[in-house]
Specification:
The structure holds two protein chains of two kinds.
Chain A: E1 3-11, H1 17-36, H2 40-46, H3 48-53, H4 55-59, H5 61-66
Chain B: H1 3-28, H2 30-46, H3 53-89, H4 98-120, H5 134-161, H6 170-188, H7 200-232, E1 236-244
Helix pairs in contact in B: 1-3, 1-7, 3-4, 4-5, 4-7, 5-6
The chains are: A alpha+beta, B mainly alpha.
Chain lengths: ~70, ~240
Amino acid sequence: MSTVNTQIVKESHGLPKIAIGVLLAILLFGIFVVGYDQGQLFSLVEGQKAFDDMWTHEFYHDLRHAAGFPCH
Amino acid sequence: MKTIAFILITLVSGAIAGTILGLINQLLVEPYIDQAIAIEVQNTIASGEPVDQDEVVQYRLWQKGGEIVAGTILGTSISALFGIVYIYSRDSLPGSNNKKKGLILAGIMFLVIFLIPALKYPANPPAVGDPETIEYRESLYIGMLVISGFTALGVALLYRRLGQTRKESRKIIVPTIYVVIIALAFVVLPANPDEIRISSDLLMNFRIVTTITMGIFWGVLGILLGSFWDAVKPHETRAPKLSTV
């Protein structure tokens, strides 16, 4: 009697909910930072100063225009 | 399902495609942004405000660097959505390998979440947008994006559902529903309120070239994720089985 190791390759589409949650969080955070933030993110640390500086708006300014996000 | 591998190839594909977008924009889009910024500077000088030209040059270099970083972040974010949609639609997509399937889905998503919203609210260069209306314009743009995205999701589910009863007619019914809803949204949603005071040449060239670079981004993203998918096969699960002979 001998023992044989075989491998079965199964196809599965079941994406764990946690993975979907992680990816959706990355999607929303990234789009907000690059496309919409007007100082909200840094205001968590800097307060009102962040709304005056609008660092993320200025730094990501050119891609905002180039990717079609509303800007000024 | 190799979940970690799936997340990794999804995010890496997006980061690479987004970085390429930022780099290509340096060559193709920046000349138009520079022209528009020059108009803004002239307007500032005309209004009597002093402008330090050296400071403007340094600031623009900083912003051009920011565009590449922004490309990496945007690419990674969009790819997060692309990966989720790909895993659920892969079996329904035409194409003999994942590279072709990825490219086809990228084409559909470019249409749904970039081109259709851009036809209603096109990209504008600097010197066009009014700071006072930015939140209103953001709401309109998100509204169009959400309508297009969720309508596409709805008709995709309907397409799958009609697979057994109306296999042929669904190919006409489903796109027609999408077109009718988008046409209604185009009519109902208000226009961009900002007045355009720059030349139509600059405006149109900017819009055409940004559409091309976003198309390149989506194409690269589809091919990259498909290529990684073919190499890693994250949908497969290897289950060791012991058998006694």
